[in-house]
Amino acid sequence: MAKIGEGDARWIVSERQDGANVNNWHWQEKDVLPWAKVRLQELLGEQVLADNSGLLLKTGPNVEVSGDAIVNNRKKKLIPSYELEIKGTWSGEVRDGEAAESASGSFHLPYVADENADEDPELKVSTSTDSAAARRLKEAFLGPGKQAFHAHMRSFVKELQAGGPSSKADAQDSKQPLEDDAAAMKKKGGRREIEEKKAAEAAKRRVEDRASTGRVELTEKFYARPRDLFECFTNPGRVQAFTQSAAQVEPRVGGKFCVFGGSVDATFSALESPSRIALDWRFRNWPDGAVSKVEIKLEEPQEGTTVLRLVQTGVPKEDRFGNGDVIESTAQGWRAQIFHRIRAVFGFGLGM
User: Fold this and answer.
1) pTM score, two decimals?
2) Would the CA dihedral through 308, 314, 320, 323 be positive or negative?
3) Exposure of 201 by Cβ count < 10 A (0-12 exposed, 13-18 middle, 19+ buried)?
4) Parallel, antiparallel, or unpaired: how do β-strands 124-127 and 276-283 relate?
5) Do 293 and 283 form a contact (C-beta atoms < 8 A)?
6) Span 57-75, average pLDDT
7) Fold for domain 22-211?
8) Where are the domains of the chain?
């Protein structure tokens, strides 16, 4: 019997000096990032996303995966914790009879994490060129191809939630020394804080990216008088001539400027013939409510030569599908689809 004030050592629970996690009962932690890289390569690499008489679309052979992926076993309950970024490439061809035009690009999943396991992750798709084939293949990727792509991602998440690697690999890993319970709990707590902070920052960035805007500034030279160029944006016949499509052009403040089958939906906000045009401008694939400001100034430094200066502000950095190349594609669209066509159709200095 113990003396008064000492207690009986048989009933006192003392801290183990070796800090052992007996029989791995309390906590087992396993890094499954190597497995995740291999599995995502198998699921997403060289996958055919669309194959029909009109086009062929498939992912490239290499998939880049970065981040963290851990499976915790708390009293035999599996708790996955992961935050991954996935990048890869795609290629394809658009068929027209015996002819075929090829194009390629990349895909990006910026945030695949356990906090959004019940949702399809954000998918961004970009093209290497601005050709018609590239645009069509991109639309196919974000259409039926996206469904097949997300099906593979759901398979990956389901496997990760079940423990990730095979049971054989589990058995091999179980032979390795595991971290003690106290250290594992401390490490887990610190990692969870880091993960929560990173998740909050990522969510904040996504909101900021969708809300933030950029600008496009272009300077072009034409062998024409300012009035000739002014009419290229205000005369319905001229607009239809260089766009090669039906156009709605109402040259007055508040009037419509709709071209390329409604892909561009703009409204004139100022008209000062023949030197200045201003429009409220948006593309159909922009987020709802996103409208940019376009100002075009026409100057004639010498007779017969007009310098066009364009400034477009309020251009969203992402479109409604999450693609982050809006500013670049907008600038390319002005050059290729408008300025180049005006020169080619009206002879105002092709190739300048």
Assistant:
1) 0.46
2) positive
3) exposed
4) unpaired
5) no
6) 86
7) Bactericidal permeability-increasing protein; domain 1 (3.15.10)
8) 22-211, 213-346
Pairing mode, strands 248-249 and 213-222 = unpaired
pLDDT grade for 190, boundaries at 50, 70 and 90: low
**Locus of tokens 């293949």:** 137
**pLDDT value at residue 179:** 41
Q: Are 20 and 184 in contact (CB under 8 A)?
A: no
Tokens of 343: 């020169």
In terms of CATH architecture, what is 213-346?
A: 2-Layer Sandwich (3.30)
17 vs 241, more confident: 241
**Are 298 and 229 in contact, with CB atoms under 8 Å apart?**
yes
3-state secondary structure of 115: helix
**174 — pLDDT class (breaks 50, 70, 90):** very low
- The larger pLDDT score, comparing residue 292 to residue 18, is at 292
CB 64 within 8 A of CB 159: no
pLDDT greater than 90 at residue 98: no
Q: Do residues 296 and 313 make contact, with C-beta atoms less than 8 angstroms apart? A: no
Read off the amino acid at residue 96: D
Residue with tokens 């013939």: 273
Burial class of residue 252 (count of CB atoms within 10 Å of its CB; 0-12, 13-18, 19+):
exposed
- The pLDDT assigned to 65 comes to 92
In our burial notation (b when 16+ CB lie closer than 10 A, e otherwise), range 222-241 reads bebbbebbbbbbbeeebbee
H/E element, 133: helix 132-142
